[in-house]
## 1
Amino acid sequence: MSDTVFSNAQRAEVLTQALPYIKKYWGKIVVIKYGGNAMINEERKQQVMEDIALLWLIGVKVVLIHGGGPEISQTMRKLGKESVFVNGLRVTDRETVDIVQMVLAGKVNKTLVNLLQMKGGHAVGLSGIDGGIIEATMKDPALGYVGKITRIRTRPITDLLEKNYIPVVSTVASDRQGNTYNINGDTAAACIAGALQAERLIMMTDIDGVLADRDDPTSLIRELTVERARELFDRGVISGGMIPKVDCCVDAIEKGVKNVVILDGRVPHSILMELLTEQGAGTMVVGGEKP
């Protein structure tokens, strides 16, 4: 609807319809996982940061967890190093983990912090190493310095939330010997959201959500219980790259997150549609019976 048709009264009506949802999430912790292909388009990135800044301004305690796989791959190409993946995980030798740390904890993290502040938010960038937020061990020697999370310390994050900042956390970690690890962003988001007992975890990806028929975009499953998700795993409905994502959703629910949503981060303002409208966006994963 164009500005000439969308009257001030209609704008006011839209805001009043959002009021119950603003009340619902005011003062609550919402963890947003942002990364991968959802980060590539600069216009969409600006809109995502606008959504997060708006949520912060209306009193939602937003924690932004980010990856940056495409940026890592691009930097490795510039340095003449080939990216190798096994089962969707980047093989990470010592040289690669240095690149991962440089890109995620440096360039990507500070770019997102800067964008949030340009949109009116107050943000502080952290890595999983800072304050020992993410402690890890080696997941598989064949993968190199890819980490398996052993502990989450939430204090640095909660301290920032109490001071009314948006924590922006990059998914690198360390162990007690000082080794650095690359951590899967979805896994890190699920563990951090669980440790924070978040009201909601939003997983931004590059598809609409879980589809009953992966070849039919109109077959979106809007609500999915943990039990139903396991049934769909067994039947092969959830397959391929969606398996680890839904696994992380189930893990987050089991760790205490109230519900998790997988949505398409390329859709303009999908976060606001999910949190501040009745219909929502994407697929919501919940524990127990369908609400």
Note: The two ends are 32 Å apart (CA to CA).
## 2
Amino acid sequence: MSFVITAGSLNGMVGDFLFDERVRNERAELEKLGESAAPLFDRADTAALATLINEHDRDISGRLLVLDTAGKVHLDTAHELTGTLFESEEVDAIVRRGQSVSFGVHESETGRMVNSQGILFSANPSGSWSSYCSARLVSNDEVIGVLMLVSPVTDMMTGLFSFRRQMIVIFLLVAVCASAVGFLFASVLTRPVTDMTRVIQRMSKGNFKLRVPEKGSGEIRHLAVTFNSMSEKLEALDETRNQFVANASHELKTPLAAMKVLIESLIYQPDMDKALRTEFLQDVNKEIDRLSAIVSDLLTLVRMDAGSIQLHMETLCVGDLVEENAHRLNTMARKRNQTLTIDVQDECETTADRSKLNQVIYNLMENALKYTQDGGEVQVTLRRVGENAVLSVKDNGPGIPADAIPHLFERFYRVDKARSRETGGTGLGLSIVKQLLSLHGGSVRVESEEGKGSVFTAEIPIKKE
């Protein structure tokens, strides 16, 4: 479309140039002749006017007409139109619109007038053409007639039509070349996007292991790198989800299977000893508590993943929470002859969610007591370091293998699975601790060596309302 518009504009510009050139050449001569012919036409001196017109007709290529304001031809050097009415746009331009000079091109056979822009779309490029150039005849500042020069311009029009044909040929060649080059570049530029689309379609069916080639440079390569990064995260997320579902199913199935065995024993042994029955019921109750703890922890993690957990912030002292949880866990420590030592060096007043922060402290202290042998020692220290409250929970238990430390905060991960289940752990506590601290802008880390115990350190930003 842009090329068609350009071709039409160029054709019009060429036509305008040729027309203007023709007008400039004929206007001066016609106006000069009109000044001489006007007094003769006004006096109706037909003989003198005819002599004047015929003398100039021999010097120009065309025919001269003298018309009155009504359009009647009084003199025609070709002796064809004398005494007839001659209607044309050029006569109207002089008589009715007050122009001094007018110019137009007409098709000889039909008399149809065209402008420079219309030439490009003319239906008869092989016809003959004439130009009409008119000038006014003035007497006492009043138009009394029109002097018109009719000249053949077929050669000029043929040149314009030839130009039109050349423009069409050039347009077709450029269009074909542009289309070919455009398709080539489009295929090169869109191939990475097409490859990516195919990969996305296959990934939508559940295959997250696919990657796209990281070719080229610039935005396309950046898009491919970003897409592959997203694919890796989706693959990791899918594997984590599958592992999570498998672990959750296993963890939920274990207490259910244990309860089924215990309850079936109670059903099929109605004469069971009362003490044994009580023991079975207590075991069932423990399994229900364990199942409830797993479900509760799972719901907590789901809410945190969904971002639906809201923090109810209030001013509190972290030291008070440490003291409260130490009091709650003293009974567990005494049963196993463990020593629980609390050292609160700073109360660390801050703004936080009391219940969430309390859960963090309780989980860290309970884990230390659970996985420390009977008669062991757990030391809890709270101090202020810069703008953070730093809680350290140190034990002299069996320690953690180096290869297990990177996985310690993963969901359902256990270093010693058999021992963890004996202690009633769900494998979710440390994962919950990490996420709750993250919600408060804090963090948790662990240092451990087999046979030398472990140290869990939680950092909580101290914020003021």
Note: The longest strand covers residues 129-139.
